[in-house]
Design a protein that fits this description.
Two copies of one chain form a homodimer. Chain A has helices at 6-16, 23-35, 38-54, 71-74, 89-98, 126-134, 148-161, 186-194, and strands spanning 56-57, 64-65, 82-86, 104-107, 139-142, 167-170. Chain A is an alpha/beta fold. In chain A, helix 1 (6-16) crosses helix 2.
Chain lengths: 203, 203
């Protein structure tokens, strides 16, 4: 498209580098900012710039943080004897949204995947073992995707934690709420029968 | 959603102010920038900031411009005796994309619409009349949407240009190329019969 302006072309190309945004949408966003007063763009640009320059990883759990330690690790109202181990920061957000968990987290930043060249040393595993040694942790919940890489990671972590006085659990797997039994895959359905639980606890 | 970081929350909210971008997409865009090195965000933010701070309207045709005069008005290879009158800058882009027009433009910045409180004095009409008086213009093409407001605007402009030695034309209206006759609306189809043209010129 001929924008007859280098400035607008640069802005459109900038938006178009974002995932899921093509040239047409990028132009729409650019013209939207053009129609608003310049202050709107300044506010927009500053929020994103500040976020990227100032955001850190929590030195304790590797969640995203505004300071050295994230808000979850800082919050003394939370149960500090449970650590939920997750793959990434999005998982922290997803679990926080359920409002069913009140403990701490540990973000691995991935799973063990030899095909992708990701070994245990690339993940935040050593720091997790250290935390469990030093702090008074009673339970470690593995909230990791039930994929081959995920299972490998859980197995490796469990080996690393052997000998520590800590209970290792994993999130329940089974047929999703609202899901149709006949549409569930064989492995999930089969495992959900084998790992069935007493009726009361499921309420 | 609980982002456990004010910085990320501000960035997500900034993206979510853009049209067609909800909170979930905004989070995806924010995390995309987080996964890239900080330089990517700086480039992104600067392109948009520069665009909004520096962009101008061409003092001659009111198209967007990097300087006082836009690239189209500056281009002496274009036919300077024809002015195409359009509602907005998007129309300039759309017509430029056709590569079928080589003249100049004049952006009105809207159409006359008493319901929306837009009168002729809010539009760039006086400057158009001045241009036609001063410059050596032979033809003015009205490329304005065939709506009631558009027709009113064309009528008003034509009245204003009366007495000037200039030919006023308007873009052809009719059944769109590739369009099915039976799906065309009555008015378009009816007018396209009344305003039929000799076969040769239509090639």
């Amino acid at each position: 498209m001929d924008y007859s302006s280098k400035l607008i072309e640069d802005a459109v190309n900038a938006f178009a580098t974002l995932p899921g945004i093509g040239k047409k949408t990028a132009l729409r966003l650019t013209l939207h900012l053009l129609n608003k007063d310049p202050g709107t763009t300044t506010t927009f640009v500053e929020a994103i710039d500040q976020f990227r320059q100032k955001i850190q990883r929590c030195k304790q759990c590797f969640n995203i943080a505004d300071d050295e330690v994230c808000l979850i690790c800082k919050n003394h109202a939370r149960n500090r004897s449970v650590i939920c181990v997750v793959e990434g920061i999005r998982d922290v957000m997803a679990i926080e949204d359920t409002a069913h968990y009140n403990g701490l987290y540990h973000v691995l930043d991935g799973v063990i995947s030899p095909i992708d060249g990701v070994g245990p040393e690339q993940l935040n595993i050593e720091s997790l073992v250290e935390r469990i040694k030093k702090e008074d942790i009673e339970e470690v919940i593995m909230a990791i995707s039930p994929t081959i890489e995920g299972e490998t990671t859980i197995y490796y972590l469990t080996k690393q934690l052997q000998g520590q006085d800590v209970r290792v659990t994993q999130i329940a797997r089974g047929v999703a709420f609202g899901g149709e039994l006949e549409l569930a895959d064989e492995i999930t359905l089969g495992r959900s029968i084998v790992t069935r639980i007493p009726y009361e606890t499921n309420r």
